[in-house]
Amino acid sequence: MQKIIFASNNRHKLSEITKLAEGLPVEIVSLKEIGWTSEIPEDYDTFEQNALQKAITIFQHTGLSCFSDDSGLEVEALNGLPGVHSARFYLSKYPDVPPQDRDRYNNLLLLEMLQHSTNRNARFRTVICYVEDGHPHYFEGVVRGTIAYEPAGSNGFGYDPLFIPEGYQITFAQMSSEQKNMLSHRARAMEKFVQYLKNKIR
Ligand code: ITT
User: Fold this and answer.
1) Are strands 26-30 and 135-147 parallel, antiparallel or unpaired?
2) What does the pLDDT read at residue 22?
3) pLDDT at 201 over 90
4) The pTM is what?
5) Which sequence positions are flagged as catalytic?
6) Mutate to test the pocket of ligand 1, among 8, 11, 13 (most ligand atoms within 8 A of CB)
7) What is the mean pLDDT of residues 180-199?
8) Which of 70, 131, 166, 200 could form a disulfide with 50 if both were Cys (CB 3.0 to 4.6 A apart)?
9) What pLDDT does residue 75 have?
10) Could you give the 3-state DSSP secondary structure of residue 169?
11) pLDDT digit string (tens) for 102-125?
């Protein structure tokens, strides 16, 4: 079976991606399984460029087909912030918080920045970059929604306790992983990627 490396150190993403790729005749291999332990650089201002940088870094290291996910939350009232800075957003105000507390402080900072805002519109965006024979292919997924006034739920990761997807009354963190995987930005990008792989393998 063809092996494809998922170039991410985020275990929550890995778990979502593995479920979303179920049934495909490819084996998704994690960075842990190939012994990669360092951070992957992501130095750019767009999801596309960061996704490419992550996937190319691992492709150059292994020579194997490889894909990455660069994603984040874009909040209308904050002109698209935290955007590509979503993972490390908290550092701008809470530089001494340890990495294991990053989700809690990211959510706290977001609520603080929106405390006087009635415009709660936001969207999650994912760009998957698949590098095959050194060539990149991109797949994008978006889900629109609003930012809650306080965190709710304990499933998922990142900003899930604050994000209420359009058409629902509960946050991603209040949904089961199956429910989130039916409508998330990552699911929508993966759907396109899976279709691409199916067409190739057929
Ligand atoms: P890798 O780069 O190793 O894949 P990362 O967590 O650093 O892991 P990103 O740079 O793409 O990944 O940052 C994504 C951040 O955006 C993530 O840490 C969350 O804060 C947020 N995010 C992305 N997808 C999310 C989701 O489905 N639910 C909640 N928050 C999400």
Assistant:
1) unpaired
2) 87
3) no
4) 0.95
5) 70
6) 13
7) 94
8) 70
9) 98
10) coil
11) 999 999 999 999 999 999 999 999
From 32, 86, 147, the mutation candidate for ligand 1 (largest count of ligand atoms within 8 A of CB) is: 86
| The residue count for the chain | 202
Q: Would you say residue 24 has pLDDT above 90?
A: no
- With a 6 A CB cut-off, is 62 part of the ligand 1 pocket? no
The whole-angstrom separation of Cα 31 and Cα 103 is: 22
Q: Which atom of ligand 1 is nearest to the CA of 47?
A: 11
142 forms beta bridges with 125
Average pLDDT over residues 159-166: 98
Residues with Cβ < 8 Å from 175, sequence gap 6 or more?
153, 155, 156, 168
Residue 8 CA to ligand 1 center (angstroms) comes to 10
Three-state DSSP class for 141? strand
Handedness of CA 54, 58, 63, 69 (dihedral sign): negative
Say if ligand 1 is within 6 A of residue 106 CB. Answer: yes
How many whole angstroms separate alpha carbon 136 and alpha carbon 30? 19
- Residue carrying the six token digits 């092996």: 3
Find out whether the beta carbon of 42 lies less than 6 Å from any atom of ligand 1.
yes
Q: Check whether 142 has a pLDDT greater than 80.
A: yes
